[in-house]
Design a protein that fits this description.
The chain has 199 residues and is mostly helical. It folds into three domains: 97 residues, Winged helix-like DNA-binding domain superfamily/Winged helix DNA-binding domain (Arc Repressor Mutant, subunit A); 47 residues; 48 residues. 61% of the residues lie in helices and 10% in strands. It has a three-stranded antiparallel β-sheet. Helix 3 runs antiparallel to helix 4, helix 6 runs antiparallel to helix 7 and helix 8 crosses helix 10. The longest helix is centred in the first third of the chain and has 26 residues. The termini are far apart.
Length: 199
Amino acid sequence: MLVTAVEPRRKSLSALYIDGEYALKLDTVTLMKNGIRPGVDITDEQLHTLIEESDARRAKEKALYLITYRDHSKKELTDKIRRTCSQQAAEDAAQQMEDLGLVDDEEYARKYAAELLRKKHMSPRGIAYKLREKGIAPNTIDIITEELECDPYSEIQAVLERKYSGYKDDEKIKRRAVAALQRLGWSWSDIKSAMNDEY
């Protein structure tokens, strides 16, 4: 197969033309490093290797970009990288970030749990659910939710005061408050107690 053109595209990619036809877009650095330019003959095997190299390089670049923006769990990072490359390349890149100490699920989970408690006044059960969504291991979730210092009464009161201050006088607001608190993972008994058994 003869490379007939290599044309720069956006996001550090180049369009590769083989035998006069557009073939695919690959990482420009990968193409340059492998000496791919018009007039070069490549085999199917070489093309496959180029695709894998390009994928791996793009996955790593994406991983580094994402973790400089904010912390991620390993699963969350893999899922986001996966949008631009293969599953294998995404998993490998996320693993590399973990090996380098740039991704740490336990540290991430601890910070995220504290933020959910502080900002949303979420219950430990609600926090555990959110951590599961982020791909955090069950034993890590157990450790972190046990570490949380959480007083159900004051957390529920904080939500009521901030968003549902009229709940004592308005049945509709009270129902909305109860539904919102249940979505935050609070039990009916905790909600009832915090509402001073007025429900």
